[in-house]
């Protein structure tokens, strides 16, 4: 239950931020997910519907945005967006590349409802699970 553990980590961070901002409810959670993070957005969405019960995010919308993999070539230095299954430099074909993105799982922003019923979009940028880079 990989997705459940991630949802619980996400929800505990979301609740912490909500409490710091004296919110009574979380209305929207925006996540950025790279395909190399090992997280499947559809599964995460499904798990979230269960995991959110009893939290401040019980009625929150979970929005996910997929981030394409990006690499920097160690040979020619070019930075490129590449397919998930082909992390080569498209410029010179070198496979000595450094992963710049695509493995992220980031809480990008939250919408909170405070007691006066105003909605406050809040930029929150933090990784809520450790990034796993194996390049
Ligand atoms: Zn290159």
Bound ligands: zinc ion
- As residue ranges, the low-confidence spans are 129-135
* Helix percent band: 10-25%
Mean pLDDT across every amino acid position: 89
Q: Strand tally, please? A: 7
Largest sheet composition? 4 strands, mixed
Element order, helices and strands? HEHEEEEEE
Rg on CA atoms, Å? 17 Å
Q: Which secondary-structure class do the elements indicate?
A: alpha+beta
Total of helices: 2
Please provide a written account of the structure.
Strand 1, helix 2 and strand 2 form a beta-alpha-beta unit. Helix 1 (2-20) packs across helix 2. This protein folds into two domains: 1-67 and 102-119, 2-Layer Sandwich (hypothetical protein PF0899 fold), CATH 3.30.2320; 69-101. It has helices spanning 2-20, 41-51; strands at residues 23-33, 61-66, 70-73, 79-81, 97-101, 105-114, 119-127. With 135 residues, it is of the alpha+beta class. The radius of gyration is 17 Å and the shape is elongated. The chain binds zinc ion. The site of zinc ion (ZN) has 8 residues, from loops.
List strands and helices in order, with pairings:
Blueprint: H1 2-20, E1 23-33, H2 41-51, E2 61-66, E3 70-73, E4 79-81, E5 97-101, E6 105-114, E7 119-127
Parallel strand pairs: 1-2
Antiparallel strand pairs: 1-6, 3-4, 3-5, 6-7
Helix pairs in contact: 1-2
The structure holds zinc ion.
Can you give keywords for this protein?
three-stranded antiparallel beta sheet; elongated; four-stranded mixed beta sheet; 2 domains; binds zinc ion; 135 residues; hypothetical protein PF0899 fold; alpha+beta; 2 helices; single chain; disordered C terminus
């Amino acid at each position: 239950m990989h997705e459940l553990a991630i949802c619980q980590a996400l929800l505990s961070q979301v609740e912490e931020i909500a409490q710091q901002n004296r919110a009574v409810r979380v209305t929207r959670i925006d996540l950025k997910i790279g395909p190399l993070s090992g997280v499947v957005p559809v599964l995460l969405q499904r798990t979230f519907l269960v995991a959110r019960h009893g939290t401040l995010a019980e009625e929150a919308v979970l929005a996910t945005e997929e981030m394409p993999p990006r690499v920097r070539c160690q040979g020619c230095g070019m930075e490129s967006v590449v397919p998930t299954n082909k992390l080569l430099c498209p410029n010179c074909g070198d496979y000595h590349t450094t992963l710049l993105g695509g493995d992220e799982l980031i809480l990008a922003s939250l919408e909170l409802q405070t007691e006066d019923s105003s909605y406050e979009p809040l930029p929150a940028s933090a990784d809520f699970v450790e990034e796993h880079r194996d390049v």
